[in-house]
Amino acid sequence: MRRVLALSLLAAPLLLGATPTPTTTPVAAGTGAPGPVVLLVVDGMINPASADYIRGGIAAAAEQGAAAVVVQLDTPGGLLESTKVIVKDMLGAPVPVLVYVAPSGAGATSAGVFVTMAANIAAMAPGTNIGAAHPVSGQGENISGDMREKVENFAASLGRTIAQQRGRNVEWAEKAVRDSVSVTEREAVSLKVVDLIADNVDDLLAKVHGRTVEVQGRTLILNTARAPVQRYEMRLRQRLLDLIANPNIAYLLMMAGLLGLYVEFTSPGVVFPGVAGAICLLLAAAALQVLPINYTGLALIALGAAMLVAEAFLPSFGIIGVGGIVGFVLGSLLLFETPESTMRVDRGLIAAAALTIAAYTGVVGWLVLRTQRQRSSVGAEGMIGKRGEVRRVLVPGREVKVFVHGEYWDADAEEALDVGDPVEVAAVHGLRLHVRRHVDG
């Protein structure tokens, strides 16, 4: 027992010295030659298309083992729902994500603030700005009532959460939402809103080389100096969606579609307006699938369009048409009026569309009314008043053969007529005319 105890005492220091201890040593994002850097360029509104574009770019970078993803950003803002999707993808990205507000003159406004702060490293080019994240409607108008407080509080909490997660200025993030503060690139660095200023993408990659970032709970060392830059382009579907996922563009497409179908219904056989209208309506439907819409507003627009079409066929003397215009305008105002949306269709577009459709409806109604008042030019009614000439006397003073409207007719005469006398059709009885002498003046 004494020998066993002695051996245990001698072996204890060796065992303790051999026990591995936990380490927090950062792991390099790449060894040897740096991996590629995937460049995404977002120049425009934050919408479902840009959200899908960023998600695809991050996934592509992860698949090829990229050293980092750089999102070059210049945006006036966009949809809050799409912003949440982008922030979620960036915070959970399997590769480091860098946001670079560029080029000079660019800005990260409104939703762009949240996207920039959600990056592992945020940078700005000289002559750029960031801020003014106060929620507004799609036309830059202030939101009123309880909806304003609800949206503002949510945006402020989102900004605080992102700032805390990335170690940025939490107080400034809330001020950007509640007070719409905006700062230049130098002020943003001093306030710890962004990390650095870079002249271009190559300068950015050189300056961040060797920095440590947290990616999915791991600490990585960026290996980006002289890394090859591969630009990730939007797919055709994303480009099309990026173009039409704008409330004003979607509204214009819908109005063009409705007007085209209205022209086709009121003037059958024209073809082109109907084809173009159907295409525009399909594009508008694609946009409305990703935009938050009020179905009551959409139903009012559809009802208004139906009433305008009915006005061309029913003798309502404008009553149905006026009702259609009213339903159309109300539906346009309510189209994007939803609890989760701050977008609005430009009031000028609504007024222009309403006036255009009202003017066309008025012209169609006037043409229909004028046509109804005109005397028929075909059939028995169309023959009355036509002028002709006596070509032969069948029964003197009673029956003659006349040439009227390019055809020979048997006719009863009101008086004695001779060959060559001008006549005028007074009545039609089956295939026989009743004529009288025509006197000029």
Secondary structure layout plus pairing:
Layout: H1 2-18, E1 27-28, E2 37-43, H2 48-63, E3 68-74, H3 80-91, E4 97-101, E5 107-109, H4 111-117, E6 121-124, E7 129-131, H5 146-166, H6 170-178, E8 182-184, H7 185-190, E9 196-197, H8 201-208, E10 212-215, E11 218-221, E12 229-231, H9 236-244, H10 247-266, H11 272-290, H12 295-311, H13 319-334, H14 347-373, H15 379-383, E13 387-395, E14 399-404, E15 407-413, E16 422-429, E17 432-437
Parallel strand pairs: 1-11, 2-3, 2-12, 3-4, 4-6, 5-7, 6-9, 15-17
Antiparallel strand pairs: 7-8, 10-11, 13-14, 13-16, 14-15, 16-17
Helix pairs in contact: 2-3, 2-9, 3-4, 5-6, 10-11, 10-14, 12-13, 13-14
Please summarize the sheet with the most strands: 6 strands, parallel
The number of E-state strands comes to: 17
Helix proportion range:
40-55%
The total of helices stands at 15
Radius of gyration: 39 Å
Terminal residue distance: 150 Å
What are the low-pLDDT stretches, counting only 5+ consecutive residues below 50? 1-25, 137-142
The CATH homologous superfamily of the largest domain corresponds to 2-enoyl-CoA Hydratase, Chain A, domain 1
CATH class of the largest domain: Alpha Beta
Topology-level CATH name of the largest domain: 2-enoyl-CoA Hydratase, Chain A, domain 1
Return the domain count: 3
CATH architecture identity of the largest domain: Alpha-Beta Complex
Could you give the order of strands across the largest sheet?
9-6-4-3-2-12
Strand content is 15-25%
Give the overall average pLDDT: 82
Q: Structural class of the helices, strands and pairings?
A: alpha/beta
What's the shape? elongated
